[in-house]
Amino acid sequence: IPVDPFDLVIFGGTGDLAKRKIIPGLYRRFVAGQMPEDARIIGAARSELDNDGYRDFARKAIEKYVHAKNHDKDKVRDFLKCLSYFRIDALGQDGWKDLAKIIRKDVVQAFYFSVGPRLFGELAKRLHKYKIAGPDSRIVVEKPFGHDLESAKALNAELAEYFDETQIYRIDHYLGKETVQNLMAVRFANILFEPLWNSQYIDHIQITVSETVGVSGRGGYYDKSGAMRDMVQNHLMQLLCLIAMEPPAHFDPDSVRDEKLKVIRALDPVPAEDIVRGQYRAEGDQPSYIEDAENPDSRTESFLAMKVHIANWRWNGTPFYLRTGKRLRARKSEIAVVFKEPPHSIFEPQEGRRCNELIIHLQPNEGMDLRVTIKEPGPGGMRLMDVALDMSFAEALGEDAEDITDAYERLIMDVIRGNQTLFMRGDEVEAAWAWVDPIIQGWIDRGDRPKPYDAGSSGPEDALMLMHREGRRWREIT
Ligand code: BG6
């Protein structure tokens, strides 16, 4: 079903995100018939470009970032007709009146701030001052949304001067991933899981977001952030919220976000012994973190593992283990819900047997599997084994993995539809920083240094100990 006609202005229209995600995503929605023919996408940036130059930029982005089977000359040509370019300086005053004239007043208006956060307020101010945006317009802002609680509050306050909260779409692209939404469907559309979804039946939960890439090329940004600010404060915490939240009364933006906020506010402070930070070493001709970050004294972590407690009735006694890092063994994001043993076993104890686990694979190969214990086939007596009831979404839906909607395309369409469910509310972001800030401050006060780890490993040894010391173990990163 096509969305309503819209004008979408992408500030930072020639940037990396526009090239890799926004334009390819919009093209895929166009091919899927979801973008109305009279939709307009206006790339806005400082570069000297004309409409043809911008279309050329977009064509190259599609060729590079959209799977070849979706390249269709006619479709690309028709899509490019929706695109134009507008040259503007976010900090200047020129051109804004002209932009106001271009934007149609009778369609959905969306402004994507695909720029650094220091420009958010400037853009918001100008959109308001030059009457480009109205009370129904939407603005989309990217992470990082602040660097700490204070800066996030300042950003929220700046945006709130010109826009109502219902107009602000703070992107956390993890919320747009297919499996992440499926998490809500699995939890709240089935009777099977919810009765067991608490500390009485769940031993612990592991959330892993492991990457093989390093930080080369973006060391300047990353070294000021580290895994905590770059991944945990947003993506991992959002995953944690969706796993841990109470069932919302309705599937609407505020009902869902109210429940997520309650989870964040219930997080206990994390003691130093429950956190392991790491930094990758050099490997062959691949540089170390220190070299990538070009900061020989860097104490920034490229790996983080931590044990987190949620202080409420449902989760008291069930730890959540979070782990994320760069240059690890494999690219893999998953959530593992590890159930307890049955209270009484009638079978012989068996070395290496695992408990029931529900594994939610976010990437690659989105899907879920439920590990259950069965009898090993054959005449060998009552020996038990684990099998996975496996559901790859691509397989189950008869889809090519390439056809699973990318997070960005889904989220942009949600902006046009005016659905904020998968976007972070201002108070959520602030609450997340309020929890993260004292942890980071603790590292600074204690002068903590991250532990070195081998590139291609699963992080520092101490991260394994975080679980081993309690008789638990991480799932392998493979
Ligand atoms: C971004 C982080 O938000 O998410 C990056 O800034 C990280 O450091 C990326 O690599 C991971 O996203 P994905 O979708 O590839 O898992």
UniProtKB/TrEMBL annotation:
Pathways involved: Carbohydrate degradation; pentose phosphate pathway; D-ribulose 5-phosphate from D-glucose 6-phosphate (oxidative stage): step 1/3
Domain Glucose-6-phosphate dehydrogenase NAD-binding: 9-182
Active site, per annotation: H235 (proton acceptor)
Annotated transmembrane regions: none
Keyword Oxidoreductase: yes
Assigned EC number: 1.1.1.49
Catalytic activity: D-glucose 6-phosphate + NADP(+) = 6-phospho-D-glucono-1,5-lactone + NADPH + H(+)
A GO CC term assigned to this protein in UniProt: cytosol
Catalytic EC class: oxidoreductase
GO MF annotations in UniProt: glucose-6-phosphate dehydrogenase activity; NADP binding
Highest taxon of the lineage: Bacteria
Domain Glucose-6-phosphate dehydrogenase C-terminal: 184-475
InterPro entries linked to this entry: G6P_DH, G6P_DH_AS, G6P_DH_C, G6P_DH_NAD-bd, NAD(P)-bd_dom_sf
PROSITE patterns: G6P_DEHYDROGENASE (PS00069)
Ligand binding (NADP(+)): G12, G13, T14, G15, D16, L17, A18, K19, R46, K143
Keywords, sorted A to Z: Carbohydrate metabolism, Glucose metabolism, NADP, Oxidoreductase
Residues the entry annotates as binding substrate: H173, K177, E211, D230, K326
UniProt cross-references to HAMAP family, sorted A to Z: G6PD
Family listed: Belongs to the glucose-6-phosphate dehydrogenase family.
Name of the protein: Glucose-6-phosphate 1-dehydrogenase
Higher taxonomy: Bacteria, Pseudomonadati, Pseudomonadota, Alphaproteobacteria, Rhodobacterales
